[in-house]
């Protein structure tokens, strides 16, 4: 096996591992942002909504 083939294999494995991880982290962040926004709206009803 050549070095480029090994590099391609390692790159493919890394993609398979990291893409779901990053996707999951991104979803968690967006959910947390939604929760924070909801909490702010609940705790600050006197604030004018934009």
Description:
The chain crosses the membrane at residues 6-26. Keywords: Membrane, Transmembrane, Transmembrane helix. With 50 residues, the protein is mainly alpha-helical. It has a domain at 18-42. It is 82% helix and 0% strand. It is built from 1 helix and no strands. The chain has one helix spanning 3-43. It is rod-shaped and about 65 Å long. The N and C termini lie far apart (60 Å). The mean pLDDT is 88.
Q: SSE layout and pairings?
A:
Elements: H1 3-43
Brief summary of the model shown:
With 50 residues, this protein is an all-alpha fold. The protein has a domain at 18-42.
The helix/strand class is mainly alpha
Poorly predicted residue ranges = none
Which band does the percent of strand residues land in?
under 5%
What's the gyration radius in Å?
21 Å
Mean of pLDDT? 88
Number of helices: 1
What distance lies between the first and last C-alpha atoms, to the nearest angstrom? 60 Å
Strand tally, please?
A: 0
H/E element string? H
The geometry reads as rod-shaped
- Helical content (DSSP H or I, runs of 4+): over 70%
Transmembrane segments: 6-26
Keywords: Membrane, Transmembrane, Transmembrane helix
Keywords:
50 residues, mainly alpha
């Amino acid at each position: 096996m050549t070095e480029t083939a090994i590099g391609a294999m390692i790159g493919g494995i890394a993609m398979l591992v990291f893409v779901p991880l990053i996707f999951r982290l991104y979803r968690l962040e967006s959910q947390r942002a939604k929760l924070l926004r909801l909490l702010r709206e609940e705790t600050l009803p006197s604030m004018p909504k934009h």
